[in-house]
Design a protein that fits this description.
mainly beta; 4-stranded mixed beta sheet; globular
């Protein structure tokens, strides 16, 4: 029986979201035991928001949800990969398909290599 080790890192473990068809890494977030159980129950990636200190079902604001297709667990049982179907085309809150939309050049510059899928100012209207 699987027993993820949430105690090792103070209750949170890394969860890598990866496109289930292409293998592209979409994002890295953290889960706690509550978000893990909600992910398993709902079939939708649910994380723990460290900045908001609450559960965060991916796409609850943007509509860009992540449907779980497969879950991989590492050898230490303290990191998971969620292989997901990215609904809505973008995993990144800045409007890109992947949070890893910039490449570090040898001169130290960051160069945008991705294209925006949506305008975050329109999607995340602050009240």
């Amino acid at each position: 029986m699987l027993n993820l080790d949430f105690k090792k890192s103070g209750g949170l473990i890394p969860a890598i979201a990866q496109d289930w068809k292409t293998g592209d890494v979409l994002m890295l977030a953290y889960i706690n035991e509550e978000s893990w159980n909600e992910t398993l129950k709902s079939g939708v990636a649910t994380y723990w928001s460290r900045s908001r200190n609450k559960l965060w079902k991916k796409g609850e604001e943007s509509g860009n949800t992540q449907v779980i297709k497969e879950i991989l667990v590492d050898c230490d049982e303290d990191t998971v990969i969620f292989k997901v179907e990215q609904i809505g085309g973008a995993a990144c809150h800045e409007g890109y398909r992947s949070c890893f939309f910039r490449r570090l050049e040898k001169n130290g510059d960051l160069v945008v290599i991705g294209e925006r899928v949506f305008d975050p100012a329109k999607v995340y209207k602050k009240k």
